[in-house]
Specification:
With 109 residues, the protein is α/β, with parallel strands linked by helices. It has three helices and five strands. The chain has helices spanning 23-36, 56-71, 83-91, and strands spanning 2-8, 12-21, 43-54, 75-79, 99-101. Helix 1 runs parallel beside helix 2.
Length: 109
């Protein structure tokens, strides 16, 4: 999986993920998110448009990330989930836990 900082300001961070988000990638994601949120941006977006697979470990890493961001008072949104990934989140009832938006609903400032 590749992670890039699409946007990073004091108020907004958007991380763009690409590839498979599985057990092998969770530590990389968690470390990257922790480093990128050191300045505590108010809004964090995780762009999943180019993620084609996520397993329970990847979902767990997103939950940890959400808790990290919420702990300092920030807000995290998942952006651009493909229909198959959105169904996985709905089946696990995580669609009520996460804010989920389309790329158009979560634009960079």
């Amino acid at each position: 999986m590749e992670i890039t900082r699409a946007v990073q300001t004091k108020a907004l961070l958007i991380l763009k993920l690409a590839g498979k988000f599985d057990l092998e990638q969770t530590e990389y994601f968690e470390k990257t998110l922790q480093e990128c949120t050191a300045e505590k941006p108010a809004r964090v977006g995780v762009d999943l448009v180019d993620v084609n697979f996520i397993d329970s470990s990847g979902m767990g890493a997103l939950i940890k990330g959400l808790n990290l961001v919420k702990a300092y008072g920030g807000e995290m949104t998942l952006i651009g989930l493909k229909p198959n990934l959105l169904n996985v989140f709905r089946l696990a009832r995580l669609d009520s836990f996460f804010k989920i938006a389309t790329p158009e609903e979560f634009p960079a400032p």
